[in-house]
């Protein structure tokens, strides 16, 4: 293990250098988290903050905490978070309109004032006792020391945390799990008999795909039928419900603007 | 090797029984048939609370004992507060048992076909019962916690289920979801402040136990700036939970949006737990540092009483009005906290019991006033209710009298005791403001009563539904307790006086 804190109670050179390089960066990243517009960028900056924290923990002799911070938070939680962001596709920037007039200005002034107050207070604070550091706690080994605390002194709060975890799982189930009523989903067999034994065989070979030939192939542009009307069933029902469907007649050949002369395919 | 920890299960029994009941409830969700789930869950929840109360009675004389390696302190006030919480929760669950107030399926988008089909299928989110039990377990632990780690864990265990349940209303679901999100975000923020404060207190005293911090406070050699920052931030986390004035912004929205039975439970039981923890922290740990916190808390008490009472006057929604009234009551309770004497402690405990029952009853009545679209909380539409349903309107008026502190109700005795204690401690200013804001508050309570009885019947379609047997037991018992505590409070006051001594 790299011991960066050489002498307990004083910030030694290597640790000081590490701190003064990483601390401003992590503060900047934390501020950036609030300022950037895209959720994914925010998540990545959060991952950066977590990694710098882990480095600080390790530098402070709390090796286990540092590793857990990386493995659990940065590795597992943050990446799950990113996965979900990407799966759900939340990349819409937040609305920046102020609902309450002057809200933002007031908040910034208050935050600066509060920060200034805290900095001035902490700047004047000194530890009156000799810091003992983690040397004593780490004597049997960092993990062993932590384990003996968790399983003796703090065993009860540690056990009660399980209630928190159960609540979280139960809450996720309540908020996200939907019980589809029986029969809502058709089996493969039923689906295919609907397809082939229905009234018409028009869709037997599959639904038409979206897009207008050579002009636009996005999923929100309905295909055009031979008579020039848009084919409604070429678009996902979700898009129709959201009203996100484009008018595909603008891409129809008849309504196209005259092709420029330079293009040479006249 | 370290020694095997000794937990002393008999002292922890009430908490462990409630947690056990909650876990069994989760298993019931998984294995019981959907049709019978609601009944089973309700029985299980009430049974658990009852058994927990019995086990609490068994340890009531074994006062002052540390359990769970010193994490939990079982002393007189702990027993009293845990008893109050269990009693309040028992009757609150009876009202929660009327699952008509809750959404059929929380995951369905409000107004969607899925929601309609879930309603038609008569589906219920019976998960609210285990969630309630988890919240109760957190509340039982909160006033008993003897170190900052346990205190924080208890705070989270009690809050998380409440955040969830606030979003499960059946009617006006978007509103309810907004309330839940608001409560969650602001609550998480307050928790972060609490943790920050705990870190500074550790820096101040090199200890996270309340007695260790107390030793550093009376030692007087440690750095006072750390004490100041730590004390401020810890208080901030707790003040948020009770809805004291600079941190009260969430209260009206959440009280209005949450399902009414949950609002009642939240208003009554969370206050007991949070004031319990606050009393312990200020009386046990920071009593000798009172020059640090007393002036600030006095200002907060005054501001809380005034803002709560004055803003409540302008409210047109009964739940919102009661939310502001609960802010005002938090202010009255603070006068007991800053009294910092035994009378103040006893009076606060009594007030919490009295206010808790009146709140459960009042919100229980609100669940009954409905029209075809659901609960009606618009005050104007309550006009003439007294003529259509005299009994329920009379009961509601009685609860409002208790809130206002009219004699012959528990509210009067509570206010009298708490202002006396504040007077004895020399905080005359607080007492004057308290009495003044009580008078202001009486105005809007009585306005509701006038509306119900003397305003013209506007021929509204709203009716008072016939309560389910459990709901009517709960509201009538609450009414009975409010009356008995107002007419003959001596036994309860005596019991509180004998038990109300904190042990370090």
TrEMBL record, chain A:
- Cite the Pfam families for this sequence: Oxidored_q3
Q: Which InterPro entries match?
A: NADH_UbQ/plastoQ_OxRdtase_su6, Nuo/plastoQ_OxRdtase_6_NuoJ
Q: Which residues form the signal peptide?
A: none
Q: Which UniProt keywords apply?
A: Membrane, Transmembrane, Transmembrane helix
Say if the entry is tagged with keyword Transport.
Answer: no
Q: Which GO terms describe its molecular function?
A: NADH dehydrogenase (ubiquinone) activity
Q: Which residues form a coiled coil?
A: none
**Where do transmembrane segments lie in this chain?**
17-36, 43-60, 66-90, 102-122, 154-176
PANTHER family for the chain: NADH-QUINONE OXIDOREDUCTASE SUBUNIT J (PTHR33269:SF19), NADH-UBIQUINONE OXIDOREDUCTASE CHAIN 6 (PTHR33269)
According to UniProt, the name of this protein is Unannotated protein
Organism per entry = freshwater metagenome
The beginning of the lineage is: unclassified sequences, metagenomes, ecological metagenomes
